[in-house]
Amino acid sequence: MTRSSRAVASPRVVCIEDFRPIARRRLPKSVFDYLDGGAEGEVTLRENCRIFSDVTFRPRHAVSFPACDLHTRVLGFDLSLPILLAPVGYSRLMHPGGEVAAARAAGRAGIGYILSTISGHKLEDVKAGSSGPVFYQLYLMGGRGAAEAVIERARVAGFSALVVTIDTPVSGIRERDYRNGMKELISGGPLEKIPFLPQVLSRPGWLLGFLQDGGLPGLPNVVVPGKGPMPLVDVAAALAESAVTWADLRWIRELWRGPIVMKGVLTGDDARRSIDEGAVAISVSNHGGRQLDGVPASLRALPEVVEAVKGRIEILMDGGIRRGTDIAKAICMGARAVLCGRAYAYGLAAGGEAGVDRAIEILRTDMERTLRLLGCPSIAGLDRSYVNVPKSWESR
Known about the structure:
This protein is of the alpha/beta class. Helices cover 44% and strands 14% of the residues. It has one domain (3-386): Alpha-Beta Barrel (TIM Barrel), CATH 3.20.20. The mean pLDDT is 93.
């Protein structure tokens, strides 16, 4: 067992939450709070996790079966668990292995991985590192020319689907980032960085890995025509100039003939519009509480979207997933699978690739235990009859 593996092994890490204090101790405050924080007062961030307690289980007791089938099928791919690792920007700042390490872990586990546009590793390296399906999450950063180039690169590299995020016309205001100097550390001048240097110097292990990795990574998958790769500067400003509209889906579909997933859907209207624009799946998502604060928790928005879709396309859900019970509740309520972001990113920050392996292992064990306690032999067997949902959640 390696040192990283020991650091995240049981009994030190028993559940996903146990990664969080380890990540906090390892990362500079600015990097940890970028991972951990949300928009404005972080109401939606907290509600994403809390909301699962409003849904309770209805188990079938006095039943027994030899094995639990945790497999599911998403976008035509057989997954060993109903999980995809969600796109997490700046992953390389959390650990030098970053997106490549996460994709390798996902492939080993037999689940999918979604690569963020804001990646510190080349998409070709990420795809080559995984033995499972890898999807590309698209922002239109750098303009249409940069987007067209990266879509073609993703096609040639063998990415299986395009995940178009629609909830970032501007970046949400993440107040922790302002207080902790994330922008200054990434893109400020020497004088601007000085007040925030103590938090970096107090994490010598992280700093050594950061320097050995070559320092501040650029964005190798955002190549602006005539300028080259976009530097990792104020990404918020770049996002503000790259909002995705429904009209953009037309030229994106012309360039990308594979499956398109719309991420950031919270209403039945946007779900129906996604179908009209040719999406084969949607992710019910509020961006992990990082965009507009005060929107519903993803689980709360799920029933309206399920009712609007009426089984015509696959529904994914992300936001607040920390336990196997959370995954089971989302599937009972109509999701095909879930996207996990912070759940594995805490593991990546705490122990690199071994941390991601451990996070997936925890969720797998959670899922099997939950199904056995529910008296349900398979993921495919989960439905609304296994949960009590508040009557106020019924779709309008």
